[in-house]
Amino acid sequence: MAAMTPARKRIAIAIVVLGSALIAERVIELSGGDDEPVVAAAAAPKRVRSAGAATEGQGGATSLRVDRLEDRQHALADSNDSARTAPSALFGATNWAPPAPEAPPGPPPKPVAPPFPYTYMGKLLEDGVLTAFFTQGNRVIPVKAGDTVDAVFRIDQMTNQNMKLTYLPLNETQELVLGNTP
Fold this sequence. Notes:
Number of strands: 7
Largest sheet: 4 strands, antiparallel
CATH architecture of the domain at 119-177: Roll
CATH topology of the domain at 119-177: SH3 type barrels
Shape: rod-shaped
Number of helices: 2
Helix content: 25-40%
Strand content: 15-25%
Order of helices and strands: HHEEEEEEE
CATH class of the domain at 119-177: Mainly Beta
């Protein structure tokens, strides 16, 4: 490999310096958010660059609002303080902990017997025995005291006015009004 000549060394150094300057400028641009660069000269008074044209300083350098830079620094300091206490606006806080188990509900409600599912049609008193007739769809069901209907309802007592029955799965009693006619 051949040794670098002094001219090539100067070119390489110039490329590195220029590249570093461009990278630094880009970093400042991205972090600052302002489109205008700020030049602070100790001897130059504060001047404002208008939107249309730049104001030339004494040495020919463009000077901008230095107070704007100070305001920006104060704003950044305030946002850094609030960033420590508040979650980022860009990414919301994520809680990876599993949700707390729900308190178990109280005891389940006590089951209740369903209403008598048959429609009263009428009754018949024959030889002192009272028979009530019920329907369910096209089916007619004659019922006497002591009978069991569909292995679910037992007829305990029957009078001209009402009928007492028991819902067998829950052993719960019900009363059904039949009417006053004999």
